[in-house]
Design a protein that fits this description.
- With about 170 residues, the protein is an alpha/beta fold.
- The chain has 2 domains: about 1-95, 3-Layer(aba) Sandwich (Rossmann fold); about 105-165, no CATH class.
- The chain has helices at about 10-15, 55-65, 75-85, 85-90, 135-145, and strands spanning about 1-5, 25-30, 40-45, 70, 95, 115-120, 125-130, 150-155, 160-165.
- The strands form 2 sheets. It has a 5-stranded parallel beta sheet.
- Helix 1 (about 10-15) links the parallel strand 1 (about 1-5) and strand 2.
- The two termini are about 30 Å apart.
Length: about 170
Amino acid sequence: MKTLITGGKSAQALKVSKAFAADNLILADYGSIPAFTSAKYQFISLGERNDTVIAHNLLTHCLDLQVECLVPLYDFELDPLLRSVLLFEEFNIKIFLPERTVSGEYIKQGGLVHAIAWAVFNESKLIYCSDSELNSRLESLGLERALNGVFQLENQQDSLVPYLLQIGQ
């Protein structure tokens, strides 16, 4: 599978790439990108950031590169992509985000997430966790909440609370 992860210049994108190690990975970012080659992934530029055409720009790149899976990490990509999920699905491109109706509950208001781990869910199924000791708890959580996307996990009163992993720019 060919997977595009945004925020490609960030440490978070490199961490998330571990969850998709079996895929053909593309790390994408806005503006200039490092002139670096790797056997594990390739870097591409998404051009200069233009908030009015975020979804269109990402869709164009996904189609041009024959991407099947999009993992958006920037906070400014969230709303435009949530509004465009059906369009991406028409082209058989999966976006790793929760449904629009519930996405707000996975955004940490008023501060940083004090994450103990992070995990990736694909349509409720846990596909990766940075702390394998949490796998059984997260498998249940993923099913209960129909999680889809990349989440940071915070421990609150002996309960794991998922928040979308987002990079601010």
